[in-house]
Amino acid sequence: MRYFILFLKGIVMGASDLIPGISGGTIALITGIYQELLESINTLSWKNLKKIIINNKTFWRDINAPFLLPLFSGIIISILFFTRYIEFLIKEQTIALWSFFFGLLIASIIFLIRKELSLKSSSLIYLFLGIISSYLISQLSFFSNNIPLWYIFLSGFVGISAMILPGLSGAYILLIMGVYQTILSTIRSAQDLIYDFDQEQFYNVSAILIVFLLGVLIGIKVFAKFLTWLLKLYPNNTIAVLIGLMIGSLHKLWPWQNLSSEKKNLIIKQTSPVLPQNFEGEDSQLINGILFMFFGFIIIFFLEKSKSVIENE
């Protein structure tokens, strides 16, 4: 049962990492596996990898494989499956999609404030700093038409750092850096090669994905070690910052957004949150939005309950 629940959490984390606005790190934090995730990533070293040859049992134990395998299996399967549908949902079911994640994030923040946030003045100051930092990052806009491989590497390094950081969306960071659609389309192209192989396309896709994954692997290792260090030395202040980062990203997940400015060469469109009655789209879909918010909220209760199952096994 433990492995199945970890697999489901991986599914939700993978789907979240594809959505600009929410982070897989948020899901890990609210479901009680965040610190174990960071510590398990830290065990992945050359020293432990050498144990594959010497003693497989020692290797699997030292890297916490019973935790990492089901979790990352869920993440990878989720990314491969949802990549084909995420752009469709963003374009065709915008309000329902963002409503679901908005409800999920609101519930997450409530639970974390109740259970994890210290009410000391220093923690509240760090909470405020987290809110401001997240808000300012979400206001950035950057785009590059010609994307060199070194920049793809940098995007992977920075993007994965945000993906494991609650409140900062790795997908949104990729969007800001102008590579979000490139990575999505490359993953889709890699899947298409299975059914219709093309040598030239294979080389192009491989170059982009290998360089991006290299950035991801180095980034997640460096950043996981840094976050683990912070959580050990400054647990209350670090948790306060993480919750603040989540609060600061709420305005980007609000389902009803009006376009405030647009430039022809930008993928990112500057928007501002508005009340449903002021929404400039064809239909505010208010009832639909409320239902999906509620559904996202309820999901958190399921994830919270699953904590006790894992802890008791």
Characterize the structure shown.
This protein is mostly helical and 313 residues long. The chain has one domain (2-312). Helices cover 75% and strands 3% of the residues. It has 16 helices and two strands. The protein has helices at 2-18, 24-30, 34-42, 46-49, 51-54, 56-62, 65-92, 94-115, 121-138, 149-163, 170-176, 180-195, 199-233, 235-248, 250-253, 286-312; strands spanning 257-261, 270-273. It has a two-stranded antiparallel ribbon. Strand 1 and strand 2 form a beta hairpin. The longest helix has 35 residues, at 199-233. The radius of gyration is 20 Å and the shape is globular. Residues 263-267 have low confidence and may be disordered.
List keywords for this structure.
mainly alpha; 75% helix; 3% strand; globular; 16 helices; 313 residues; two-stranded antiparallel ribbon
Anisotropy-based shape: globular
Radius of gyration: 20 Å
Number of strands: 2
| Strand residues, percent | under 5%
Uncertain stretches of 5 or more adjacent residues: 263-267
CA-CA gap between termini = 9 Å
Oligomeric state as shown: single chain
Question: Secondary-structure element sequence?
Answer: HHHHHHHHHHHHHHHEEH
Strands of the biggest beta sheet: in what spatial order?
1-2
Structural class: mainly alpha
Helix percent reads over 70%
Mean pLDDT over the full residue set: 80
Number of domains: 1
Tally of individual helices: 16
Query: How would you sum up the major sheet?
Result: 2 strands, antiparallel
